[in-house]
Structure formats: C-alpha cells, structure tokens
Design goal:
This is UDP-glucose 4-epimerase. 32% of the residues lie in helices and 17% in strands. By secondary structure, it is an alpha/beta fold. α2 packs across α7 and α4 runs parallel beside α5. The structure holds NADP nicotinamide-adenine-dinucleotide phosphate.
Length: 385
C-alpha cells in the first residue's frame, strides 16, 4: 500500500514549518494605525519556546527574547535578545540587564522556566511592575494526588518545603514547579498558569534523547503488523503545543487569568489508535495483546511501552473543562500526530531511528524483532493463524 502524502492537507503554517522549521517566521503585517503589542519571552529557543515565539509574531507582537544565548542560537536571530543568566545568585544576571529595559513595559511576558523557583521570584521581584500579563508554563505534576479521576484546578497541590533562599537549592521537578506557582501567586494577580501534560509538537522535546522521538506515531508510520497493549478503554491525555500556544494568545487578547489544566480531553487508547491510523496508513494488522502477557515478555508499561500506565490506570485524567470554557480548543489528535510525523521525517529523512536495546545497553521502547517475536508467541498461545 502506498504511503499517504503527509504534506497534503497541511495548513500553510505547518507546511512552512515542515520545509524550514528552525527559521524565524516573518513578522506579521500590521493594519495601518495599529500599534504593536510587546512580548518578552523568557527562554524561547528550546522545545516549546519557538512555537510560542512564532505564534506571538504571527499575531502581531513585537517579541524580545531573554536567555543566555547558548541554546539553539540560530533561532530568531532577527529578534532583540536580552542576554541574561537567571541562575546567578543575588539576581546578578537580572541586575546586569541593560538599564534601558528597567523602564520597558511588556504587554505580555511568557516564562517557560522549569529550574529553580527562585529564578521565577527574582524575575518578578525585579520586573512585576513592567508586565501587563504574565504567562507561566507549569505542569499537572503540581497536584498532590494523581490517583483520582477528573482532577480540577482547585485540587490540593504538593505540600511544599520552605521557599529556597538561593538558586542552587535543589528540589525535584514537581516541587520546583509548585514553588514557582506559589511565588507567582504571592507577587502578582495578572497571571495565567498553564498546567500541561505530555506536550507534543513538530519538534522533539529533547532531540538528543532517542526516546523523545514519538514512538507510536513512528510505529504507525512504518506500518506492518502492530502490537498493542489490550487497554482499549484506558484513558490518556497529552497536549498539542500549537493548541496550548493558541490559548496563550487567546488569554492575552481576552485577559483570561488564573490556573488552567491544559491537555486534550481524556481520550480512550483505542481512539488514539484510530487517530494514528488516520494520520499514517492502514496497518496490516493490529494485535491487541493482554497486558500480563506483554509484561511476562519484558514489555513493561510506560517505561517500555509509551502511554500504557497501570497505576493510575491509563495515562491521566485531568479535567480540562475550565480551560475549554475560557476558550481553549485542542486540535484533533490526527493533526497533532501528523505534525509529529512530519517533524520526525524532517529530522530523520531516512527513517533510521532504531528502538529497542541501544549500544549503551539501555532500552528505548522495544525493537521490531521483539515485537514480531511476541506477536508470534501470542498467536501460538491463542491458536491464531
Ligand atoms: N515536555 C512536556 O511534556 C512538558 C509537560 C508539562 C510542562 N512542561 C514544561 O514546559 C516547559 C518547556 O520548556 P522549554 O525547555 O521547551 O522552554 P524553551 O523556552 O523553549 O527553552 C528553554 C529556554 O531557557 C533558556 N535558559 C536555560 N537556562 C537559562 C538560564 N540560566 N538563564 C536564562 N535562560 C536560560 C534556554 O536558552 P539558553 O540555554 O540559551 O539560556 C532556552 O531558550 C518547561 O517549563 C516544562 O516544565 C513540559
């Protein structure tokens, strides 16, 4: 069977990203008589930052970046850059910023920070009076308990240690994010916090780590006989970065403040599989195999088989109704998956990423041979031809 032509039907913006995803998009054309709004993006050149910057530009913002000028320095070279190290103690990095920025007002500030929460409080202590609307990319990891369904924004957050006095004090990710949120709430009211989960985009979340190439989209793109854990009715959630970014713009335009869970609606695994099929090509055959049998054969939920979680069952169930009512729209999963596959094909035109045991002995999901072998054993066990 012939492969679908993935570019067919893609939106203009996605097509542009496909041909040249790491270049700056042009500035949007402004109507005569309108003044551009200003945006400061703290970070902006990693995984989700570029999508935020591109969307702000496309929506007519004048964008300035703030980072150390170390990561992906080829990106957005035509934009003003404030070179600043937020991890210096005693606000030394912030204090070294050119004095002209001491009076600059930004309509919008987007902060993607995930390291020391002290860097978030330091920034706000210095600049809070110069910000129209502060947006912070947080995570669902801020919730204390995950073993219930329909987690809403008012659920208790992680119990917290004292706020760190220095940048170098170390905490685990969930605590850093929760402390950062607390720091924001204590300092300003004009904020929106996006508690997201499992972000997916054209870009890979960590290009250096093979596992972050999207396993299921690639597996369906390759076609053939496909092994699946028989958890058709498990719920799962993930976040399309483009949809989240559109919501950031929406919140800026409509002054939507507060905390929001951001992800697709809880989706059945079998519906995700339908979207995978729709975005790629019809597989030769799907083999829905019992979880116990997969575990016996070394396919461990989540660690080895992405999106299959046993505890809590499924891959999350966060209530996103508050965001939907405020204007959040998650694109169809098939669009998001198509973007992921296009990104993969751009990075690996020879489709040469190999899953399974790696040269250093680590496992990245499972190999085609393992998959074939388990399917064969499963058929034998169940008398399937
Ligand atoms: N992946 C997921 O599924 C997921 C889920 C939920 C939430 N999140 C959150 O999403 C966010 C993703 O962020 P991202 O990495 O994609 O953001 P990003 O803004 O695209 O990239 C990180 C930026 O931070 C800058 N930076 C790093 N250290 C710095 C320092 N000391 N001082 C100043 N700037 C510094 C980097 O530039 P330089 O190195 O040049 O300084 C880079 O531009 C994180 O907050 C994460 O917690 C992710």
């Amino acid at each position: 069977m012939k492969k679908r032509k993935f570019l067919k039907g893609m939106g203009a913006a996605t097509a542009l990203l496909f041909t040249n995803p790491f270049e700056t998009l042009g500035q949007a054309v402004m109507m005569p008589g309108t003044t551009k709004k200003t945006a400061l993006v703290l970070g902006g050149r990693g995984f989700i930052g570029p999508s935020i910057v591109q969307s702000l530009l496309a929506n007519g913002y004048e964008v300035t970046l703030l980072n150390r000028n170390k990561t992906n320095t080829h990106l957005f070279n035509n934009l003003p850059l404030i070179v600043c190290d937020r991890e210096k103690e005693d606000k030394a990095g912030l204090k070294s910023i050119d004095s002209k920025y001491g009076k600059t007002y930004w309509d919008v500030v987007v902060d993607t920070w995930q390291k020391s929460p002290k860097a978030v409080s330091d920034f706000l202590d210095e600049f809070k009076d110069q910000i129209g609307h502060y947006h912070y990319i947080s995570t669902v990891s801020v919730y204390d308990k995950w073993n219930k369904k329909f987690i809403v924004e008012t659920e208790p957050l992680n119990p917290l240690p004292n706020f760190p006095k220095t940048i170098k004090e170390e905490y685990r990710y969930a605590i850093r994010k929760t402390l950062a949120e607390e720091a924001i709430r204590e300092r300003i009211a004009n904020y929106t916090i996006y508690r997201s989960h499992g972000m997916r985009d054209f870009r890979s979340s960590n290009p250096k780590k093979l596992i972050d190439e999207p396993f299921w989209p690639i597996r369906f793109y390759r076609g053939g006989e496909i092994l699946l854990p028989n958890v058709k009715n498990h719920h799962m959630q993930m976040t399309d970065v483009k949809s989240m970014v559109n919501f950031i713009i929406h919140c800026s335009n409509h002054k939507v403040f507060g905390e929001y869970n951001i992800a697709c609606r809880p989706t059945l695994f079998k519906d995700y599989v339908s979207s995978l099929i729709h975005a790629t090509k019809k597989p030769e055959k799907l083999h829905w195999i019992d979880g116990d049998f997969l575990i016996e054969n070394g396919l461990i939920p989540y660690k080895v088989v992405p999106f299959w979680r046993t505890q809590p069952q499924g891959s999350y169930y966060f209530n996103v109704q508050k965001a939907i009512e405020a204007g959040f729209e998650h694109r169809p999963l098939v669009d998001m998956i198509t973007d992921q596959i296009n990104g993969y094909r751009y990075r690996h035109p020879n489709d040469d990423v190999r899953f399974g045991k790696q040269a250093d002995g680590t496992m990245k999901c499972y190999s085609p041979d393992q998959e074939k072998d388990i399917i064969k054993k499963w058929k034998l066990k169940n008398g399937i031809d």
